[in-house]
Design goal:
- The complex is a heterodimer of chains A (325) and B (539).
- Chain A is 64% helix and 11% strand.
- Chain A is built from 10 helices and 6 strands.
- In chain A, strands 3-4-2-5 form a 4-stranded antiparallel beta sheet. In chain A, strands 1-6 form a two-stranded parallel sheet.
- In chain A, β3 and β4 form a beta hairpin.
- Chain B is an alpha+beta fold and 539 residues long.
- Chain B is 51% helix and 19% strand.
- The mean pLDDT of chain B is 86.
- Classes of the chains: A alpha+beta (325), B alpha+beta (539).
- At the A-B interface, α4, β5, α5, α7 and α8 of A face β19, α11, α12, α13 and α14 of B.
Chain lengths: 325, 539
Amino acid sequence: MLMKLIPVFKGFDFFPHDLNLPFMKFKAPALIGSILAMLISIALCLTFGLNYGVDFKGGSLIELQTKSGNADISALREKLNGLGFGNVQIQEFGTPNDVLVRLEEQPGGETAQQPAVQKVIDVTSADYVQRRVEVVGPAVSSELRMTGFIAVAAGLLAIVAYVWFRFEWQFALGAIVALSHDVLLTAGIFALFQLEFDLSTVAALLTILGYSVNDTVVVSDRIRENLRKFKKMELNQLLNLSINETLSRTILTGITAIAVLVSLYIFGGEVIRSFNLAMLLGVVIGTYSSIFIAAPLLGYLGVKRDWSDTAAKAVAATKTSRAKA
Amino acid sequence: MLQFTRTKIILTLLTCLVGFALAMPNFFSKETVASWPSFMPKKQLPLGLDLQGGAHLLLAMDQDEIKKDWMNNLRDESRKLLRDAKIGFTGIGIQGTQLVVKLAKPEERDAAIKQLDKARQSIGSAVLGTGGYDIAVTAGNDDGTIIVKPTEPGLRARISNAAAASIETINRRVNNLGTSESTIVRQGTDRILIQFPGLKDTKDLKALIGETAKLTFHEVHPSLSAEEAKQTSIPAGYKIYPGDRSEGPAEYLLREQPVVQGDDLADAQPGFDNRTNEAVINFRFNQSGARKFGNFTKDNVGKPFAIVLDNKVLSAPVIREPILGGSGQISGSFNVESSNRLAVQLRSGSLPAKLTIVEERTVGPSLGADSIADGKRAGIIGGIAVIFLTILAYGTFGIFACVGLLVHLIMTLALMTLIGSTLTLPGIAGLVLGVAMAVDANVLIYERIREELRTGKTPIASIDAGFQRAFVTIADSQLTTLACALIMFWLGSGPIRGFAVTLTIGILTSIFASVTVVRLLISFWLKAQPKGRIQTVPV
């Protein structure tokens, strides 16, 4: 049959499975380092500030393409700065004949934005074709800012609630610290390099949350399984074993995700580049956090050791009786 | 876990087949699909505005204007009602959001309230217990005053009706631009979203929806000019309107209550004046408009009347003879373009209130095409990388995983086509990322199988245990990602939403494709092996 045509060969098991890396030995420096990194990220966000894109700051973005030849950015800058629309940002966008023009939010409320954009288009229409226009007024930008913030917070809470429901509160606490770490560090890097932070970055943050918790859940699942299997093993040793057992999966999945994201980053076009960059950062940070934050925290918090069926039933019974009361 | 009943095999294969059939039209051009026989599915994924190019405009209604208009109407109506009942009053004034009526005789207050109650309109539904009136008429604090105040639900209903009316008007106006693929929907209480695919220049569209186009015909004050009225006092019932033209007076003193309104127009067409060759608009009233206008012009021969558009006086011609036919001509400082536009606006009716563009996202068709090309290229290269890595790491079972990924991709496309979601650029990213996440399920399973093999289990037992043990983890990790995706969908707007939809569907299909389909393939493979000869698992 058809199945006989498929070549039978083993895969290349590149991962040395008997490595047993002593992750838990580094739990203290790793945790301190991570907390420090989180604090630095918060400080960066507060001092440098996030470089909000049009979505969150309001204002306008106009992508122009030359009708022929390369764009003369300095000439364009001179022309547009003379219009009196405040600070006009002009940058090359992807190729030498594409430019991105950013206008600040114009004073005068909702009605003041459109005329400014139309003026820029009119002034440049001789040499440039407009490729994209995004105008976000003051009301919408503040709403989007709010929505973005709520979305990330709600995503965090939903995940933590799920982890709590499926595991124990210690796992949920580990997850929330690890996830906050991922979000904060990504935001911190965005603040440090003043990368544009907009709606698509928020989507990236949410996806990072999903990806990172994926890793955390895989490790947690293994920890729970090992807790049942090795009832007498010392906790730190057990956590270390669980991380090591899942390490090959963590790394392989990370590699495929990074391969896809690198391809999206390089070939996916300029429009979604910042999204892909955030994702790439997040995958790396998220992989780190599930190994070095979520599981080691359990070593400090301690976990319930008896996962046998009778004990589980007893817990369920007290839970329901508590709920009834 | 490796045993499949006949029904299960058939169901799985059938699901794949249906998915393939549904997804297939997306891989062919519109023309090719149209030529297929009728029993084949033809629905294609519509491309989002960021991929096919087009305009996305979010408009906000001016709520204050609606409230102000309503207060003015209420004042006129109250005045009329009190006069009809012969109840004397010394003044009716608008104070903020309420109307204060001062009666001449305080003892007539109860009768006046009863009379003014006639202005109320019931809203909501009595059955649902939400019944009520749009305004409340109550006695004021001072003797002989009455307060007429819109109620909260009344205001909401008013704004809601205005939004609905605006959408209809915009629809009629936009249809004149030629394409009918635009969608115009309400968002929230006072916002309207217009999505207009394939539009190159939004200037026309914006101009078309940017004016309320409220046309009114007013009586000009017979003796007083605007300047004179400003110096002395403005007579009751009159108001000063600015002029729109450089020639003629800068301001006019007009009776506030119009003689005829744009609602009474039956038709409006752009044209040219025979004598001056100037662009004009020829209009025709409907029956009631023609009668009102006829009566007015008959009584006012020799006097001027004013044609007012959006509270600006276009012109104020003198009535030479009664205009009984109900048609006329509006001249102003028009050019061909603006007269065309105004004619469309007048035919489509006026907007209840001015609309402001609070968000615009316009993508030119060339950028959209570039984005599709970029997305395809990145997807193919990313896909090849994933296939290479998977087969390298897992051998024959890696091939099965890749088949699972292909099924996953096709099923995701099929489901998206089925529910009629649109494919956006973030959506493509979600699709590609979904593949990367779906492969995680296979990684989990295969790593587990290897682990079981290392403990010395037999090949079949290892495969079985691998699927069984990994499934819990897969379900857990997928559900948490699902929670994230759903939140993105509920809270997100525009780009986030497109991404969330593909991610959600990707998660739903990945369990079927990466677990069930791959398991079925492995069970087929096992069956094809000679009995008792499976010594090694090609993983």
